[in-house]
Structures are given as structure tokens and as C-alpha cells.
Specification:
The protein is an alpha+beta fold. The protein is about 15% helix and about 30% strand. The strands form six sheets. Strands 8-9-10-15-12-13 form a six-stranded antiparallel sheet. A four-stranded parallel sheet has the order 4-5-6-7, with helices on one face. A four-stranded antiparallel sheet has the order 16-19-22-21, with no helix packed on it.
Length: about 425
Amino acid sequence: FTTINNSRLAKENPGWFLKNALGELVQKRTHLGSVYTLDFTVKAARDWLRNLIRVIAKEWDYKWIKLDGPLVSYYEGGVFAGENITPVEHIRMGMEIIRQEAGDEVIIEGEGYYGPAIGLADTQRVTQDIQQRWEQLRHCCQANLMATYMHKRLWINNPDAFILRDSPSPYNKDIFGDGLDEEIMSIDEARMMITALGLTGGVVMLTDKMGVLSKERERMIRSFLPVYTNAARPVDWFNGHKASQLFHLPVDNGQDKWDVLGAFFWYEDVDELSLNLADIGLDPGKSYHVFEYWSQKYLGIIKDRLTVTKKAPHTVQLFCIREDTGSPQFLSANLHITQDCLNLKNYRYIEKTRTMGFSIACFNQKKARLFIYTPENLKVKHVRTDADTMTNRLEGNMFVIDYDSNNHTIFEIDFESI
């Protein structure tokens, strides 16, 4: 569509636009003003679109084209000038032209109806716009997580932008005109949003100005970068609520496998969530370490069931579940929600020498913290590292390493009998 007041195209070519049965141009009101809708059953309109996309993709060399909200409502009351097609078929016609002219090297982002985008869009928005209002934020997070079945099957899911700032947008009223102020998102709500969007495995788009972020929220960026491209799946279907509350992500970094579980307390009347480990494919006869990412707490060893108690409203708990090997194990880090699939490299534990080695690299590797499980019959003898600074301490069975470094850090840890 194109706006009425500032469009030379509409003024010079009224025959390219959708008309009603009386031959009058169809007008629709949007937050951008009144608009006309292009009619691609008119060959000249199709040719104009082809040329536009060629200029954008070939001459201007844009690599990402977003199609923002093609909706059936723009067609209400209209009659196509050419062939007799539905509005959805018309949207598909426009997308086919865009895909053909942009070529495979350009990313096409769809938005709106799913059907017309299948096979044409590289990535597709799967929810409404995210804003700093709890009800809308919750709905977006739920919709994104419930749509993960489409990810890597129809396209790469696009969950909209991550919002980290702890201040409202100064532009919201001007853009949306609904007269409502954005709410200031609490740290718990920010963690819930990061967890939900991070578990989708899709497109990551951060739109905050870095200068407005506190140091705490700036460090949260590393929680979802780089992207782990697999998506979580809902576990607790038909729980009496609109959306699932438990989401499971199997993790594999090529050296080790473990499971990540997100427990979302969306609803005020839910105080406890429970998971049978067999429901996510784990062996109830085996023992598993459980670690919670956001609180950085080791919860011990479990066998058949994990029960989660709500700490406060609007909160999420994100668990790493690893099979107990009976030996020292790298258990988690405060670096990434996968705990830590993408940053940990060259991991090994040699039983004969009781030596653990690994390297770890992450965006913003300041105030990094690692958690190493140590059996009761062993203790850490020595730590070798090239970190800029490092301290360590023992918390029960957990050997905790705090360090600062630039980009890439190597660790070797020797253990000895107690």
C-alpha cells in the first residue's frame, strides 16, 4: 500500500490501485495515515514492483527486505481489476515477485499471514510487535514459543526485537498513537523475555541504544549471543491455560549433550510446576545434576522428577540438566542461556590424571563466572589460565571461578583426592 497525501505514484497512476464496485479508490486508515492498496492484477503495477525490488537489491545492494504487515483488511470492499483472486492469493503474488527479483542472496522477511510466505520468506514474524507492557510482552513470548514447530521447517522464526532497557521509549505515543505509556520492564520481566526469545532459536534483533543501557542490562546481551539455532518445544500440553509453561531444549555442542528447561510463571494462580524427566527423554533410573541459570544456583542431583516453585510473579527459571558422570564436570556458566553450548570448546576430563581442560569465548567476557561440579572425594589442586584476572572459591560441591578476559580464555584444572 502507499499513503495518499505524499504519494506521487498514486496521483500519477490511479489505475494501479484497488477500487471498489463503484470504481472509487479504496482507502484504509492506518497509524501511518490513510493509504491506497496496489493492485498487482494490473500488469503495470507488477512491473513497477519488479523494478523497485531490482533497484533496492541490485543497485542499492540491500541484503534484507522486510514486508511489514500485508493484511486482508487492506482489501475489504475492493474489487481486483484483473483476474478473480482472493486477497491472500494477491499477497502471494506480490511476494513471488519480490522473491524472484531479489534473488537468493537477499533475505526476505515476511510478516502477517503465514500461508503466502511459505517457500518464499527466509524468515517470518510469528507474533505481534513487542512492547514494554506486561500483557503484550507475555502474549508475544508465549506466541513465539508456541510457534517453534515452524522453525527450520517453513522458515527461520522471527520473534521480533529484544528489549533490554529499563526506561520507556520516548517515541511510543508518536508512533502508535494509543495514548499509553510503556511500562518500565523489571529485571525479572527482561529475563523472561530473553529466555523466551532465546529459546526460539530464530532471528535476533536488538534495537536498544547501547548508551541507554545500564551495565547490568548490557551484560545480558551475551545471554542470547551467539544464537543457538535450535528451538525449544513445549512439554506441558493441555495444562488448563492458554499456553504451555515448560519448554525443553536438547543441547549438543559436538562434545557433550545436555538438556535445558525453561519454566515460565506466566500466570498469577500457578505457584509450582513439575516435570517427569521421562517426558523429555531422560532415563529415570539415572542421576542428573540441576543448575538454575538466572539465580546461579546448584540444586543438587535428581532422578525422576523436577519440581519448580515460583519465586515471584512474572519470573522464569532456566535449568541445565546434565547426567551425573561421577567425576568432576563443567556444569554451567553465566555467559549464555544454553549453559554453555556455544562458548565452551575443547572440553575434556582425563580420569587418569584427574585433569579438566577447556577454552571458552564469549561476547563481553567481563564478570564471567564458571561452575565446576566437584565430587565429595576430590578437591581442586591447581588452576592454570590465561585470564586477565581470576578468583575462585568452593560453594558446597561447586567450584566457582570468577574472571575477566578478552574474547577467548583457556583453563586447565587439576584435581586431587581429599
